[in-house]
# Entry
Amino acid sequence: KLGTLSPQTKHISKEEEEKCTLGILERLDAGEVVVGDGGFLLTLEKRGYVKAGLWTPEAVVEHPNAVRQLHMEFLRAGSNVMQTFTFSANEDNMESQYFEYAEEAVWAVEVLKESGKPVAATMCIGPEGDMHGVTPGECAVKLVKAGASIIGVNCRFGPWTSLKTMRLMKEGLQAAGLKAHLMVQSLVFHMPDCGKGGFVDLPEYPFALEPRVATRWDIQKYAREAYNLGIRYIGGCCGFEPYHIRAIAEELAPERGFLPPASEKHGSWGSGLNMHTKPWIRARARREYWENLLPASGRPFCPSLSKPDV
Amino acid sequence: KLGTLSPQTKHISKEEEEKCTLGILERLDAGEVVVGDGGFLLTLEKRGYVKAGLWTPEAVVEHPNAVRQLHMEFLRAGSNVMQTFTFSANEDNMESQYFEYAEEAVWAVEVLKESGKPVAATMCIGPEGDMHGVTPGECAVKLVKAGASIIGVNCRFGPWTSLKTMRLMKEGLQAAGLKAHLMVQSLVFHMPDCGKGGFVDLPEYPFALEPRVATRWDIQKYAREAYNLGIRYIGGCCGFEPYHIRAIAEELAPERGFLPPASEKHGSWGSGLNMHTKPWIRARARREYWENLLPASGRPFCPSLSKPDV
Amino acid sequence: KLGTLSPQTKHISKEEEEKCTLGILERLDAGEVVVGDGGFLLTLEKRGYVKAGLWTPEAVVEHPNAVRQLHMEFLRAGSNVMQTFTFSANEDNMESQYFEYAEEAVWAVEVLKESGKPVAATMCIGPEGDMHGVTPGECAVKLVKAGASIIGVNCRFGPWTSLKTMRLMKEGLQAAGLKAHLMVQSLVFHMPDCGKGGFVDLPEYPFALEPRVATRWDIQKYAREAYNLGIRYIGGCCGFEPYHIRAIAEELAPERGFLPPASEKHGSWGSGLNMHTKPWIRARARREYWENLLPASGRPFCPSLSKPDV
Amino acid sequence: KLGTLSPQTKHISKEEEEKCTLGILERLDAGEVVVGDGGFLLTLEKRGYVKAGLWTPEAVVEHPNAVRQLHMEFLRAGSNVMQTFTFSANEDNMESQYFEYAEEAVWAVEVLKESGKPVAATMCIGPEGDMHGVTPGECAVKLVKAGASIIGVNCRFGPWTSLKTMRLMKEGLQAAGLKAHLMVQSLVFHMPDCGKGGFVDLPEYPFALEPRVATRWDIQKYAREAYNLGIRYIGGCCGFEPYHIRAIAEELAPERGFLPPASEKHGSWGSGLNMHTKPWIRARARREYWENLLPASGRPFCPSLSKPDV
# Structure
């Protein structure tokens, strides 16, 4: 996805540039960390404003307050970028909208490039590659050669898988002697059992993904690992709620020099528990506790992995 | 918790009575099903407006739009009752606010009863009982004898455990030849591993409960089982989001005769998937599929149950 | 099961008494710990000599060497008692052989008592009781009043469930002011999901119980907990292999004052690994390691609990 | 491992050739399926005759009856080949004995080839390859070029991983225009979480592998899949007990035309349960039941996968 067509690709708007003294490229060039936003479709579905299966964004017109409220929450959680909620993820449209061939993405980057604005292109690609046989490394090289300044992945895969793809993209660029800013917006779900097609092929999609939702601590690890890989545009896609975005902003607060507004309502690493009257709950008010906790599913009759339908 | 002191007990307000032609007791007496609302504290914590550990409701003043938005969502999802968001769940306050002895609840019911309004009393009690040795059955009898018209449980335990307690309360009333309307507002989390103290004693509380969140289908089963038990006030507590409340309203639509507004964005039993271009995703557009699915956690390195800290 | 009829009840034979200077009662009265043997049927089934479903002991005649070899292994592992392998667990016979009513067991104890030998009676009973409404405590009292010197449980339930029943039996005796020696021979399988009917009602019985088999370290904990409960005859039933019996004998070696012969081939608590060339395997040569290890099933597509068929 | 040095490589002995009218190559050339034997070290460790960590075969001298008994059981279960139990798996020896470079295996094959007997060479190699960078395909080609008539894998990996390696070996041979008989002897453990080093690097090795043991039905699938891959020498390594070998022989009975002796004590696909008095147990006496059962671990506090130590 590219440009103004979709939330997955960011063609930075005039207004947005004016609001900030600096454009996104200048920020990234200056070494800043940019925090992306989270997922609109799945979150608004749970709030009652988007229909699963259809995934169309008419809520913008029908319930603008509800959409505005979610924008406010992401902003408050630390997002630097507010994507316009205009992406139609209609499953029929998916086929024609989404790029099926890497070449299509390349053409789109070339067209957008003519506008004179920086072009960011993120692909729905996994570590094993896709799009009629293109590897992540090859894909990265093609996009940068076409003129993209920022490249990366979004949607379809979970945090660790997305980072694995990013590592391959980065290595592909390095091997080709190319440079670009890196960007990642993974899904919020733990999905080591995903196939090439990503989360839609898992039997739990889209109505039973709850047990796979990452905790805030998982997302802090994801943000740190992304940062260590050299990625400087770090956000989320489907399933990322405001508190997940806040977790990115909190993890990278030392690098960025500030906490997001929503952190006034969040003690770092559970420190809000340190006044609890029960000593065993107070004992949870520390980083090591949450970093090492292996959270139970509470579902002993369920498996821990599923087989994708294809 | 009782009366105006907290969201856990409903002392129906003047305004609310005037809005409806009928009061809550008249409705329940007439055999109506009343759908409660969901959890404010945990949901607003994830949205960035409530601080975990402190759990205080200053968001009402600081961010009224955010609170109003969540009220709107629950209303749209089918809630008949909007609780005022004034409960201070401050962990220090908990000790003094919460009833430690069943007798305290009894006194509160007696005081509220004098106001001439119907009194609903829900207790945080599990199947094994609590409160210095009172069983669910004994507790139910005490509350009804004190004058409560509606009794039940809320918070602390998951859906199946809460229903188990309700069954014992009902049996206690029957054995004593008493009658009352029944009410249940369980947590959204799967917690068969809970001890007497409920969810706060599980190691995942409050920041790693994600894998335990019930799906909408789990909540439909909960609503049906509650209905079959004779419970007619059915809602949720911590962790219940608008789509969980919608699941209650959809499951009981045949009995109530109507769907909630938010169902315009929800195909019943996944029917919204029946136009999908991929046949294996279309195949998920049916009730049997979601009723029988055992959702994976995506976390093979985690256990399925935890040991409570006490 | 009682007396010479079955391996579950021990009527000590003439020969056995002569072999030892002391009879079993004298030993137990003197405070000795008696280590029982393990399971013959399931072990010989895996070796190819017993037919599952039929569970008949014709191997004694058809393949005496195979049976003798298993006896040798249990003896070498530390068993003090060698049960005759004459129990016909034929599923048809089960109905008529097994005691359906506690009274039957009482009559059998009374008859055997007349022989003048010590009578040991173990019942297939769980913590919730069975046998037309008898609790473990009541059952214990009946057997001791009938003349049994040693009482306890065997088969049907796993280690922790069996010990829970034993605790109830012990409390029943204490409440009645009675005394008896206690005996436990649990199954080797982890079965917290068992119903009243025990392991035969689990869907995995009898051909897919492998993932439930206890490790040697689990059995050491079982032996210690049994000892702490005051049980002095400690053995195993179906699924207990020679190394499980050795684990009992090793755990209780400090109390008994000696190790079994098979310990010449077993370093206590994994110490046999301390010469390994790989440092991370050497690091496993210690008690804390094995005591705290949570062993993975290697089966991420399987649940951790099952629902019993009844 | 090669030749007479170890059980992992079979240099067929004079006596063995005389016993059979046909040598192993003649049999395989004629299209016969050869059933291998199972694991001696781990099985005899559980019986009390081998010391874990040391893994030396002095039991042959110290307890010949115990070793002979296990040989008898494998024979009865259907093994066509009885390996001499002379392999010293002493962990110190491992380093010098095991081939570190594929070239060493090649030299050994060349030396054994001079004896004029057929040489079978099995390697401890996983799908990702090993031995200083040799892939399974390259390894297969080297061994066949050196003169091996039978090649394959044994030990270190579980059934599905071993078959994956075999597929790569087969493809390597096909690409090089070479032919050889294929042989597989996997471990009995489910280990999708294995790293390159195989099972010794899993935290459960060697004393907590119980939950990973394959059922007889798992092994039937393994045997069928091996057969379908074109493998005609199918056996097992560590952890394979007689009933696992019987499962291979039963699965391939239609192809071989006969059942092993131990099948007189085994109803195929659970048919031995069809006379059970409880209808829900009788209902398990069929193939679909056992093929589709997902066996629970009975350990809800344990994970389903582990992280290898390296």
Remarks:
- The two ends of chain A are 24 Å apart (CA to CA).
- Chain A touches chain C at residues 193, 300-307 (CB under 8 Å).
